[in-house]
């Protein structure tokens, strides 16, 4: 998600921005983010085909990056019990 904060990017641009990412992860990650509503996919009707990925309004929300959902690729937070003293 951090690679998309500057604006929509194509797959090749994502690979360059992230660096060291496998094809499998580069394919699966946007799919999970799309399913979670954090990323939008825009296919341009032109030849050659061009697809761009960008953050949705929910994906740009600061709370989305701190979510404990697996699609955000962040480590899950541990629950902390607060007791009244």
From TrEMBL:
Q: Where is the composition biased (Basic residues)?
A: 75-85
- What Gene3D superfamilies does its record include? Winged helix-like DNA-binding domain superfamily/Winged helix DNA-binding domain
Q: Which UniProt keywords apply?
A: DNA-binding, Transcription, Transcription regulation
Spell out the residue ranges making up region: Disordered: 61-85
Stretches assigned to the HTH hxlR-type domain: 1-81
A GO molecular-function term, please?
DNA binding
Q: Does the keyword Iron apply?
A: no
The record, for PANTHER family, names: HTH-TYPE TRANSCRIPTIONAL REGULATOR YODB, TRANSCRIPTIONAL REGULATOR, MARR FAMILY
* Protein name as annotated: HTH hxlR-type domain-containing protein
